[in-house]
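Quick one, T. Sequence first:
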Amino acid sequence: MSAWAGSGRGGAVTPTRAALRHHLERARARTEDLTTVPEDVLVAQHSPLMSPLVWDLAHIANQEDRWLVRLAGGRAAVRGDIDDLYDAFRHPRSTRTRLPLLDVETARKYAREVRDLTWDVLERSAFDDELTRRGFVFAMLAQHEQQHDETMLATHQLRQGTPLLDAPEAPRTGASPDVARVRIPAGEFEMGTSTEPWALDNERPAHAVFVPEFELDTVPVTNGRYLEFVDDGGYARPDLWSEAGWAHRVEAGLEAPQFWHRNPGSGWVRTSFGRARELHPDEPVLHVCFHEAEAFARWAGGRLPTEAEWEKAARWDPATGRSRRHPWGDEEPGPEHANLGQRHLGPAVVGAYPRGASPLGVHQLIGDVWEWTSSPFVGYPGFRAFPYREYSEVFFGGEYRVLRGGSFGTDEVACRGTFRNWDLPVRRQIFAGFRVAYGTGDV
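Structure tokens:
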């Protein structure tokens, strides 16, 4: 559904209330799908890296209570007494089961009550201040919920026990790209955005970046290609790893991507949402940390792309010299372009979405797997925190590495050519893979 009415994205545009409602409804439907599971599954801590699902459910409602009911709507809080419980910065994930959380039914009731008020706020909004202009805060909350939905999906992947989720299988056939890598010519391009109305603060502002010539794999690294690295002793060669990466590999005992298991006599299998599946050689590799990706890239004679290189490959149109919203153009993602939105519970094979390729012939830059880049997470020149520092700014300048492109679990409302994700370089629970770049990389 188009979110816009009026003169188009280049001029003055007005968000349609129906489109904003549509995005909020889609997010809530997905939340309900992910939390329509037995109560013991909702309240358990399935990993110290993740919250119990019932915490996510109430946190989503609490953020909507704060931002849409109170700030955008000027209403009294539905549950102001629980703000501390559901403040992600006050309580580490590993401690949240010890908090006096809302029980499952109370959390569901709270979410319904908040949402009922949200519809009234949406209908009455004049979109006339910085927070609501062009529907920003409503879209921000839809993105926030979808981001937590992806986090809950990762929790389901980590959970032990009977499989509870199902979806149609991702495409298993694809057109192999003509070449293994493409050349991206040197030159400036516009990185980030100053016009995308629902972009979050770390995507702003647009700024010119010069990128030297480099080459980039046309597709993400596949299971089959990664298996060559494993079989060649990649996990036993410290020369392929950074000092920090090797120390982590040894301490954590890494020998293969997370959820890979070797079956004697039958090769490797991968556990996906509680089901053991034969490793498909043409799927992008999944659940590798930054250090593993970096080591593979060195083994392959290359390196990880910088964030600027990734975005230029994804957005720059050599015919016009401008940056597009997505690799395929400015139109919203469709099922023909990318594997997004939990339509499937895993990545498609490489080459499955030729209509989503960039003008230079780079495939699957959006969807399927998040892609690690070599860049630390920092603000762009002229960055301004909005509407709160804790979304981005507090993570700048540390160990975090940027990931780009979204995964099969990322919704289209939270995935753009400018969208930036970040995580610690040791994390593997996220739906992350990578592709390899070649060249000096001095961006």
